[in-house]
Design goal:
single chain, alpha/beta, Four Helix Bundle (Hemerythrin (Met), subunit A), 2 domains, Rossmann fold, seven-stranded mixed β-sheet, four-stranded mixed β-sheet, about 20% strand
């Protein structure tokens, strides 16, 4: 996608292939800054501090993290230590482990002198594959928006999303936002309700920044406004992303997604989830019981980041001083509340049968 008329991916190798550049998402939407990753620890910290975020991008960053580690030490011990360092950064997003496993498979049993080049090739492939995967997700999801537009000719299709599942959560295109970009580019009248997504405000900060940059009509709303909008017929469909999807179709996404799905179910609003197949955890059936939920530092709840009157990015305390805060980063929406899944292979019901029909090799 483009920023100020220039095409960017969210992560890319620098010219010498020895370092990697990322868009620092902790500075958005107020500043567009590029950060350089030079070491394994740089990559791990970028994931932990959410300079990069979104399941597919976390996986891509971990892949390049392995490359950076091998550039320093290509031994077996260093490779395993790098993998463990990266696995510990974010527990919920399954793409992290998927990408690390892909990288290990690409370099294990190779001579040390060949490992770095093999790792770079596989990391580049992971990024290119993610872009193509998300493009296909966009095309399949576009059919849902076309159907919604056909059901109300001449009127705007109102879509509610939660958190950020756009191009900066992936390598390019995005998951939940890819169909919206394609619908807008195709001339369909779309408008997006953007949940602010407390506590880090990824909706208000990142999704709104993305949509505004692409010219997509949108409105930021408080997290708890979704149910009200649905009750009054102001939402035609919901589309969110997911950080991990079970073999039965349960989805783990940013905290608050479950409440949106409940409201959608009560009001007869279709609730779709867009995901690359690398986000499916085929080893888990029950998402509520089996998906690990990341708990982040309390400061994200008690403080908010914004632009101060002097133009500097500042953090301001908004909670009662001394009050403890809990910060659950994700919740799980059971498959029974999900109308359907949007994958690179097509649309399917949120069920084990639906997923296996698209991915018979996982039978």
């Amino acid at each position: 996608m483009k920023v100020n008329g220039v095409h960017y991916r969210s992560i890319w190798p620098d010219g010498d292939d020895e370092t990697v550049s990322i868009i620092d998402q902790t500075k958005l939407p107020h500043r567009f800054e590029i950060a350089r990753l030079e070491t394994l620890d740089d990559a791990a910290r970028a994931i932990e501090t959410m300079q990069v975020r979104g399941a597919p991008l976390i996986g891509a960053t971990a892949a390049y993290g392995i490359c950076l580690a091998l550039g320093e030490d290509a031994s077996d011990d260093a490779l395993e230590a790098a993998a463990e360092r990266l696995r510990a950064t974010r527990p919920t997003a399954i793409n992290l482990n998927w990408a690390i496993d892909e990288m290990l498979a690409a370099v294990r049993n190779r001579p040390r002198g060949e490992r770095l080049q093999a790792a770079r090739v596989r990391a580049h492939e992971i990024c290119d594959e993610d872009v193509e995967t998300n493009r296909r997700i966009g095309e399949h999801g576009l059919t849902l928006i076309r159907d919604a537009a056909a059901a109300k000719p001449g009127e705007t299709v109102n879509i509610l999303t939660h958190c950020n599942a756009g191009w900066i959560a992936t390598v390019d295109w995005g998951t939940a936002l890819a169909p919206i970009y394609m619908a807008h580019d195709a001339g369909l009248p779309v408008h997006v309700w953007v949940d602010e997504t407390r506590p880090r405000n990824q909706g208000a900060a990142l999704t709104a920044w993305e949509l505004g940059g692409h010219g997509v009509p949108h409105t930021i709303v408080a997290d708890n406004a979704g149910g009200h909008l649905m009750q009054h017929g102001l939402v035609d469909l919901c589309i969110t992303g997911t950080d991990r999807t079970t073999a039965a179709g349960d989805v783990a996404n940013k905290i608050g997604t479950y409440l949106k799905a409940l409201a959608a179910k009560d009001n007869g609003v279709p609730f779709h989830v867009a995901l690359p197949s690398s986000t499916i955890d085929w080893t888990i059936e029950d998402g509520v019981a089996g998906i690990p939920i990341e708990e982040r530092e309390a400061r994200e709840v008690t403080h908010v980041q914004g632009l101060g009157p002097d133009g500097e990015i500042v953090s301001v305390e908004i909670a009662a001083p001394g009050s403890p805060a809990a910060n659950y980063a994700f919740d799980v929406t059971p498959a029974r509340l999900v109308t359907g899944l949007i994958t690179e292979r097509g649309l399917c019901p949120a069920s084990g049968e639906g997923l296996r029909a698209l991915f018979p090799e996982k039978g």
